[in-house]
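Allow me, if you will, to draw on your knowledge of protein folds for a short while. I have a record of one protein: its chain in single-letter code and its fold written as discrete structure tokens. I remain grateful for any guidance, and I place the record below:
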Amino acid sequence: MDALAAAGLWLGTVAEGALKDPLLGRAKGDDHANRARDMAMRAGMPSRRPIFFAIDWDASLSELERCIPYLDGAAAVLGFTNVGIYGGYRTIEWASSRGHAAHYWQTYAWS
């Protein structure tokens, strides 16, 4: 990883389980964050790099509101500054305007 960073290439990690797992609440966010952190560490990713949590469907606004406890769970494990969200335009716009993560990665799909 250090050699890639020295060459100007940065890797991102995306945590994703079943498609709509972010609707399952804080315990699922805790679980995904713990598992993603452990896998990233084993792969040699520096602890200061964010892990992006996928909201990888065309989520409605009511579904996005139901994702807040999941994101809170991830932040409780990793710290807010290490939490990112991967998703479509509506998801990124919603999350960034409300400060639900420190990093955002917009997919081409759903955008």
